[in-house]
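Pipeline run #58 for the internal structure catalog. This entry was flagged by the ingest filter as a single-chain record with no existing model, so it goes straight to prediction. Upstream metadata was stripped on purpose; only the residue string is passed forward. Reviewer on rotation: M.T. Logging verbosity set to normal.
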Amino acid sequence: MKRQRKIKLTSIMDVKEFVTVAGECDFDVSIFCNHMIVDAKSVLGVLSLDLSKALMVEYDGNDRALEEILDAKDAAKVTAVA
């Protein structure tokens, strides 16, 4: 079953950290904004999205590190702090 989470990446370091963690997953991780969908394991793909908006991550697997970064970058938490 595919799961979805909204995240907010506010800097290039956030993107690098997220892509590194996604790249270590042995399942597909996609990220999209509006109608644009990219492979979350691609730095250039993620950087091509509008980082000023919340991004939707879709994945179909379990990985502790991925869940931790999704929790840390949760759009509701990051927006509330900003």
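catalog note: The first strand starts at residue 3 and ends at 7.
catalog note: Residues 7 and 73 are 5 Å apart (CA to CA).
status: ready for reviewer M.T.
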